[in-house]
Amino acid sequence: MAEVITIGETMVSLCPDGAGPLSYGKNFSMHIAGAESNMAIGLQKLGHVTTFVSRLGKDEFGRFIRRMILAEGGKTECREDDQHSTGIMFKENLNADETRVHYYRKGSAASFMEPEDVKEEWIKEAAVLHLTGITPLLSESCRKTVTYAISLAQKNGVKISFDPNIRLKLWGDKDYEELIAGILYQAHIVMLGVEEAEKLFGLTEKEEIEKHIFSHGVCEYLAIKDGDKGAYVTDGSSPYFIPPFECKSIDPIGAGDAFNAGFLAGILEGKSLKECGAMGGICGAYATQTIGDIEGYMDRETLERKLQDKPDIMR
Q1: In the chain, which end has fewer C-beta atoms inside a 10 angstrom radius, N or C?
Q2: What is the pLDDT along the chain (315 residues), one digit of tens a residue?
Q3: What's the burial of 104, exposed, middle or buried (CB within 10 Å: 0-12/13-18/19+)?
Q4: Torsion-angle region of 276 (φ positive above 0: left; ψ -120 to 50: alpha; else: beta)
Q5: DSSP 3-state helix, strand, coil percentages of the chain (rounded to 5)?
Q6: CB–CB of 275/237 below 8 Å?
Q7: Burial bucket for residue 116 (CB in 10 Å: 0-12, 13-18, 19+)
């Protein structure tokens, strides 16, 4: 039985071997990338059972994604689609802190997800349904799928976890603030960045963000992520600042999903709010030290060592 079920799109991510414009030609390595599967893999590596729901093309890229998730111990419920291809993205590393992403995902297999792809028994058996603001923007059928999953979670008393994961390239010239905020207000666990809060609510002060979210929804746990400035976690009454964890950043993409995995792991284990935040902060920082979304995600033994401030023995 999965503790956490999540729904979304995973793409093949082609990462260049160096920094600079792609127009000058690069060699690429093949990875996987998707906010929801990233989080699921992060949780699996920390010892929790997850199920990732999606659609994949009946192609080599789809098989690669499925194999990669299974290799990390995750369970997949991904319908194989022989009419549409698996989505692809290219990374463009501008420098150590900036990465541009180029999507080739329009009309992908995942964008054709429908409510029938989600089974009530999967959600009913889980403790948490994790969603992001990416999936409902992929298509109208994806939006209906997310709405249906939320209704099943609410019907069965399953906690909802949500990260807006705002991707303005998906927004185009449309305004999805109301849609994403509407999902956020239904979530019991909210994890978002400071810039996302400003986009959704026009707020930048963490205390004001906290006040707004706890007064407009059913939130029980809130984590406000602020990159290398640390994080702010609260249950609406007891806030904690989580200082940034020292790391040598190479690729920041995937760090927010790693934070989510650590934070959710702490909640599932009944840890104190401060411990949950520390777990998220360490996992997020550690994820930036390698190329690729998931390659730097830590296992349980490493996390425990970092929590106890024990040094790594390298040789």
Answers
A1: C
A2: 789 999 999 999 998 888 888 888 789 999 999 999 999 999 999 999 999 999 999 999 999 999 999 999 889 999 999 999 999 999 898 876 678 889 999 999 999 999 999 999 999 999 999 999 999 999 999 999 999 999 999 999 999 999 999 998 899 889 999 999 999 999 999 999 999 999 999 999 999 999 999 999 999 999 999 998 999 999 999 999 999 998 888 778 889 999 999 999 999 999 999 999 999 999 999 998 888 788 889 999 999 999 988 776 655
A3: middle
A4: alpha
A5: 40, 20, 35
A6: no
A7: exposed
* 50 φ, ψ (degrees, to nearest 5): -130, 160
Residue among 230, 231, 296, 284 at smallest CA distance from 260? 284
Using CA atoms of 83, 86, 89, 90 in order, give the dihedral in degrees to the nearest 10.
-100
Q: Locate tokens 């994080």: which residue? A: 231
Dig out the tokens for 310 from the structure: 């024990």
Query: What predicted TM-score, i.e. pTM, was given to this entire model?
Result: 0.95
